[in-house]
From TrEMBL:
The keyword Nucleotide-binding does not apply. This is Tetratricopeptide repeat-containing protein. GO terms for molecular function: cysteine-type endopeptidase activity. It comes from Bradyrhizobium lablabi. One of its GO terms (biological process) is proteolysis. Residues 339-416 form the Caspase family p20 domain. Residues 1-22 form the signal peptide.
Amino acid sequence: MRRSLLIIMTVMAALWSGPTFAQSRAQLGPLCTSEGTPADQQIDACNKIIALKAFSGEQLATVYFWRAVGWNKKGDYARVIADTTEALRLKPNQALYNMRGSAYYDKGEDDIAIADFNDALKIGPPNGTIFHNRGNAWRSKQDFARAIADYDEAIRLNPKEAYSYQNRGIAKQALGDLDGALADINQAIRLNPALPSPLINRTVIWRAKGDFDRAIADATAAIGLANANAPVAVLTPPGSVLISAYLHRALAYEAKGDFEHAKQDFKATLAGVASDAGSKANQATARVRLSLLSEPVAPSPQTPPASSGEVQTATSTPASPETSTPASLPVPVTTASAGRRVALVIGNGAYAHVRALPNPPNDANSVAKSLRDIGFTVSEGVDLDRAAMQKMTSDFLRGAVRAQVALVYYAGHGVQIDGRNYLVPVDAQLKPGGKITDGMIDMDTILAGLDDPVRTNILMFDACRNNPLEQRIASTEPNRAVEAGSGLAAPGPLGAGSTLGAGTLIAFATAPGRVALDGQGANSPFSAALSRYIGTAGLEVQQMLTRVRAEVVATTGGKQVPWSNSSLLGEVYLAAK
């Protein structure tokens, strides 16, 4: 669950007066203006009142406001915005700006949301609810200092509001202050022990602290409250609380090693109805984690087990897939200072059916060595067919469940098809009658499998070369609406399959839709720069990528500009200061 929002109902309800409204209220008013009315009934009642055409000004604005509440229950934020905009045209009001700002926030348009919250505070008295909601938007923009300042003001104005303590705790957790976060979440629970959401937040904190039994206990309590129809914030989409509680309990069970209970909870996560972005992201993660736990796990007979601290490597020969040697995840190395840090490094160059690439194996070797030198446990694969690549990726995702930092580096062919990105194994080819993406690895699967607020995820893809299948797709699939573009696509909205990715950084060797260079030397321009800077002590990861970007731009004469997108929840140092 992404957040809990509060709205101001009493101001708008006070406008429900007058003789004409009194007559309508007896029949339709209670359905239109009740927080507890089911969404469809509420919308229908408000529609009928609007159809009377008997009201104007503030009274009509009130009806539009309550219909917006109904749309919000359905997660239809575009209609929420339309109705509140019409109401604001009729009569500007603090509650309307707050409501519209909340809808923009739900759509991910944080800057517009903040502007609406600012307007709400300008035209009315100081209001803790609006400070709270603006704090949520600042938190979404990862400006945690401003978020905490707004939550402080919300708590000063409404000292008994549990949600403000809860969300201030979430912001503190993002800054790494787990003890401060725990204190705020505990206060939220004391203020309103009937709320399930603070228990879910405390579940995440216990998992981050490695106390899986307490995490499971809190998630279980949250599920019990949600099933008992415990109160939730008015704007919280239906079902999102249960989806979140089941997911985080499943992750706690998985981290504890209780895989059967984890699978049951992942299935329960998927059984819920997801209407908001956070719930869809949670279900995407549950789908991948359930698939990983449902796969048989058996070490390859050709690959000896690695001892602690060793680097596991794998190669495969596309002409003879039965001889491929996929690797199992090596025994992780834990350091007291940084926690468990694991990396998956793959370089594919020896393609059998599309243009071969000389440098990716060298790129993978260079990056793997650099990561090994700064204490990462590395699973390394070179020239992997799909079976080997799938196994190595699955093993890595399983092992990352208890890691503090998970890093993925891939060099080789990558393609975007219908706006989604796929990594290409060395045996990939188009077969008549087969699905285009059957022989590839879906990048969104990796993103969803790693999506977890207790872990930092860093994914780097030097896979933006010319799409090797673009012309073949066009010639073999002339009647199919398949779009195969150049380079990689920027991670899209949740509906397209990507996740929220809190705590995740994604870097491409060049801008989305552009083509990267393989390089004239032994390494690509991106991997050469990355290998040079990734081990620099005391260099924050985004500063490191800035140096990589500058070197690649200089090396390629401006033809290639590396791109990154971050939702990291704080500063991350790969090499100790």
